[in-house]
Amino acid sequence: xxxxxxxxxxxxxxxxxxxxxxxxxxxxxxxxxxxxxxxxxxxxxxxxxxxxxxxxxxxxxxxxxxxxxxxxxxxxxxxxxxxxxxxxxxxxxxxxxxxxxxxxxxxxxxxxxxxxxxxxxxxxxxxxxxxxxxxxxxxxxxxxxxxxxxxxxxxxxxxxxxxxxxxxxxxxxxxxxxxxxxxxxxxxxxxxxxxxxxxxxxxxxxxxxxxxxxxxxxxxxxxxxxxxxxxxxxxxxxxxxxxxxxxxxxxxxxxxxxxxxxx
Length: 263
Fold this sequence. Notes:
It is a single chain. With about 260 residues, the chain is of the alpha/beta class. It has one domain. The chain contains four helices and 18 strands. Helix 2 links the parallel strand 8 (about 105-110) and strand 9. The longest helix has 17 residues, at about 1-20.
């Protein structure tokens, strides 16, 4: 009996060491997420998942170290339906969620693989796409909802390009600008709220968003539009835009070859 108890205790210690049962992770995180400390033990990485639940929450800390990275292929081929990634994460490996065909919603701190690397700032990157042009080939059709965390400050050019099945995107009040073609081809997107923090919207940001019928913009804000990118960057010149009516906003932005900026 003592030998059995000793064996079980050793097994538990082993699982905790490799993170198999999430030992040392936040209480609200999902059991089965596999964490590993970095070589210098300054942060933790997510390297895999062997849990049973399909709704996965990643811990912000593991063994008192921030969880900063999700490795390439960490969730590849898994039948998860939702993922919540904390703001502590600063890098997501290419294809970390490749072939996650059943995923319906994602709460993510930023778009793509890194907030700092412009070559990885499109949604398809974490599903294995080589460029934003391939978003539509890699982002699962089951994915309907994206919730961006409040550490994101910019929605880059082509970030959601051709993500044709996404219906809901929540933009936090930390975002300052929306790039050109950012939501182009999001043909299932029906309504979106532009937070007060946003001061710039690029050209064709919502082109080919055929289902988009409402874009909510603070009706008390003052916006102008211009075809000149320099004027847009400097926030000078251009014509006044009435943003009081969400229906009119949607119609204008769906076909807009203008740069919009808030005065």
